[in-house]
Amino acid sequence: MLSYHLQNALRSLRRNPILTALLVGGIALGISVSTAFVALRHMYQQDFLPGKSHRVLFVRLDSWTTDHAFNPEDPDSVPDQLTYRDARALLRSPVPRHQTPTFITRMFVHPDPKVSRPYQPDVRLCFSDLFDIFGMPFRFGGPWSKEADAKPEQVIVIDDATNQKLFGGGNSVGRTVRLEDRDFRVVGVLAPWRPPLRLFELERNPAGPPEPMYIPFNFVEPLQISSSGNSAGWQGVPIRTFEEWLASESVWVQYWVELPDDAAAGAYSDWLRAYIQEQKKLGRFPRPIRFRITTIAEMVEELHLMPDGVKAMSVVSLLFLAVCSVNLVGILLGKFLARVPEVSVRRALGASRAQIFWQHVIECELIGVLGGALGVLASLGILHLLAQYMRNGEALRLDGEMLLISLFLSLVAGLVAGLYPAWRICSVPPAMQLKVQ
């Protein structure tokens, strides 16, 4: 029966191609606008790490002074990063499956003079767990080993753009990159990867791309590497040496953990609470015990990373789609009522009201699907235009989830536009038309 109704719907659409184009275009207009702005909202509210987002947590401890909170306007605020000594201590926790302190610095790269001049990119220091926590895809090789973390070994992971620039895009595993005055062996090359937000460090330049280079965190002390990111401190004492900087109460290290299961969150909270109590005995953490372990989604909400107006525009775009659908009701009603004689004959030959109703609903849904397909193609142009004005515009795209949402919206739009006209045509008494015929 469905195939029969589809055949009838296709024949009906072919009878008047101009009217069909008007109906399809109306749906397409609404779908293109709504899909584009819903996709923009989806970019900030999607599941960034499918299957484990609720287990990947950003750790913050309140090691601040009693004089005022980290944010003086919020007495319950905690520092946005950790001190180096706390980051080191948290590595002792047995609870997380993966964990890493991390920060960025800037180092000079000295490539082959035939390839490029020296330049100074951002370099992220981390443990190899970072690549597992955030599911970073590799094109060649992979993360360095735990042994390379511990020694540390002069190994490096580079992104695809750096591999293209320095090695022409080939498999560069085993080759060397000279950072400052040391040669680092390439162990992995990342595949092209551009998340909507810079997940490692949402507090600073969240819309920026991931760093192009990664080296082991344990080079901090032997190479005396300082952070080029955000830092803050509350002790009013001069810092004369690098060792004093590492031992100070300055916060400049981000800390991420991946817990093995949902139940581990309680165990990890207990471990952090015990650690703070231990530090209080040593004269640190003068404020009441306070810490936060937050998911990426919670961080996005807390830091208000979604641009102002995106939520409102997504709602307005859906209302625009509803207006487009309602405006087509009159056109469909006129089209359906024009075939009352034909429907009356079918009713007289035994077709039920339900069959007539569903035939016309399916025709409206076919219009919705055709308009949705055209609207999705048009939305790509709108997304491309929006991307030109966004720092993270290259991450604005239609994924599988958004395509399903677009299909759903198309079906709803077709139903809204055609439900009343379909009901009217099946409600017309056939007797009057048969007398006229």
Task: Walk me through the structure.
- The chain is α+β, with helices and mostly antiparallel strands and 437 residues long.
- The protein has two domains: 2-48 and 308-436, no CATH class; 63-289, no CATH class.
- The chain has helices at 2-15, 17-45, 84-90, 129-133, 146-150, 160-167, 220-223, 242-247, 264-281, 296-302, 310-327, 329-337, 340-348, 353-387, 400-427, 430-436; strands at residues 56-61, 82-83, 98-106, 122-126, 138-141, 155-158, 176-179, 182-190, 213-216, 251-258, 291-294.
- A hairpin with a 2-residue loop joins strand 7 (176-179) and strand 8.
- Helix 2 runs antiparallel to helix 11 and helix 11 packs parallel to helix 15.
- The model has no long low-confidence stretch (mean pLDDT 88).
Distance between the termini: 28 Å
> How many beta strands in the DSSP annotation?
11
Series of H and E elements: HHEEHEEHEHEHEEEHHEHEHHHHHHH
Given helix and strand content, the structural type is: alpha+beta
Low-pLDDT parts are: none
Q: Specify the number of helices.
A: 16
Supply Rg. 30 Å
